[in-house]
């Protein structure tokens, strides 16, 4: 099972390599990257350096070209595929049908992975992408129960990749309209969710208020951990109750499912967080490396307390969840 880790710059990439990643995924500083955060990501020259570093270590580099192409600037997606092919990037993570068609027809030997943003949730959809674009791997959306993941693994020969750890968002996989509605910046096209320039913190007699574009997202008491103000994880009044109406401020952690995922033949577990710090990359990569090695070599898999503590410390709200893997609703 491959451990696929995030990197927002060369420093994070080196950290992931040093701490046990089997593969690393990155994006460019352009509109092809759904995590197009200011100050992060790779120029063409940095991509070339990243390819050299990863190949020298015997690992793999995946490039995310995971936005839906702009009708007025389609050449940007085309040139990014051309660049990746010329540098011999190990795999491209693509969501757009036109980009998949171009990559598969122009570079038939290029390894293509279907992005989570394409939302392929059944075997017929997965097989369609495999048959028409020679997709080798599909990244499953974080909306499936573990039972549904198991069923898919039984019914398709295409490699499956699942999210293992990191932040959760409301069930639209990159097409969140809430942040776009409040800030005017689309998470899909601008690579941001709750842009920092719209975030405000203020101490008030009611507590620490967090706001996004002047909309009150939450109020924290002195003994509460304050989370980054995203609209889907705000606390709002509904009738007589005030609670997290849409989503809890917590991080996905599927480590307890590792034996099941391995038994299914899941090809890779993916760590979310290309916008996160070196310390995050180091902590989550080394912890998951130990867990995968333990699970591979032992029939009796147990989670070490220090692993839980390590992951809780870097989780949103200092708490974790199995997310949709364990939910009965769909």
TrEMBL record:
Alphabetized Pfam families for the sequence: Peptidase_U32
Cofactor(s) this protein requires: [4Fe-4S] cluster
Write one Gene Ontology MF term.
metal ion binding
Name the GO terms of the biological process aspect: proteolysis; ubiquinone biosynthetic process
The biological pathway it contributes to is: Cofactor biosynthesis; ubiquinone biosynthesis
* Keyword entries, A-Z: 4Fe-4S, Hydrolase, Iron, Iron-sulfur, Metal-binding, Protease, Ubiquinone biosynthesis
Residues bound to [4Fe-4S] cluster: 169, 176, 193, 232
Quaternary structure note: Forms a heterodimer with UbiV.
Q: What does this protein do?
A: Required for O(2)-independent ubiquinone (coenzyme Q) biosynthesis. Together with UbiV, is essential for the C6-hydroxylation reaction in the oxygen-independent ubiquinone biosynthesis pathway.
Family membership, please give it: Belongs to the peptidase U32 family. UbiU subfamily.
The molecule here is called Ubiquinone biosynthesis protein UbiU
> Origin organism of this chain?
Thalassotalea piscium
Protein encoded by which gene: ubiU
